[in-house]
């Protein structure tokens, strides 16, 4: 599994996180279309994404850019109600959502699938920001949730490969 933790400039985003980015990629021996079907199925997200604790609004029948959904995200015992907005949708390759949580926290979540010779590469990118996570605190928070992202990708593989 490949991973990196980086500080990212805010100008790269549709939204201003400006704090930390954690990206993990895992090679999976599954068809990229099947991986995409599971990664983009919001109803299944709680089955594999450790930090997703559930939806608090109706899920859309179809994903479209601009759709807003309310959910609960949790990490290391902290829970936050988050309003997620779909910012990019490029089936069957990429889904990018950003979230605004209580207290000014900001989140970015990208799931990407790309074909490989043996199946596909599945990448989960998490970005953290907002006033409560500004500066070194955001980078420390990203390191703290690295294990959650690793467990999420392993769980995805266990369930669907």
Give a quick rundown of the structure.
By secondary structure, the protein is of the alpha+beta class. The protein has helices at 32-39, 45-48, 136-160; strands at residues 2-7, 20-28, 52-55, 68-75, 78-90, 94-101, 106-116, 119-129.
Give an account of the 3D structure.
It holds the Pfam family Polyketide_cyc2. This is SRPBCC family protein. It comes from Mycolicibacterium doricum. An eight-stranded antiparallel beta sheet has the order 1-2-8-7-6-5-4-3. The protein has one domain: START domain (Alpha-D-Glucose-1,6-Bisphosphate, Chain A, domain 4, 2-Layer Sandwich). It is globular. The two termini are 16 Å apart. Helices cover 23% and strands 43% of the residues. The protein contains three helices and eight strands. It is of the alpha+beta class.
């Amino acid at each position: 599994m490949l991973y990196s933790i980086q500080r990212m400039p805010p100008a790269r985003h549709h939204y201003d996180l400006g704090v930390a980015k954690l990206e993990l990629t895992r090679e999976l021996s599954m068809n990229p279309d099947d991986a995409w079907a599971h990664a983009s199925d919001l109803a299944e997200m709680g089955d594999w994404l450790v930090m997703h604790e559930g939806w608090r609004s109706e899920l859309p029948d179809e994903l479209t850019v601009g759709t807003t959904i309310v959910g609960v995200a949790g990490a290391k015992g902290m829970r936050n109600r988050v309003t997620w907005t779909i910012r990019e949708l490029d089936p069957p390759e990429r889904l990018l959502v950003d979230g605004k949580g209580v207290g000014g926290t900001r989140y970015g979540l990208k799931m990407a699938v790309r074909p490989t010779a043996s199946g596909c590469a599945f990448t989960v990118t998490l970005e953290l920001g907002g006033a409560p996570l500004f500066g070194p605190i955001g980078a420390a928070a990203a390191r703290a949730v690295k294990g959650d992202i690793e467990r999420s990708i392993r769980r995805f593989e266990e369930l669907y490969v």
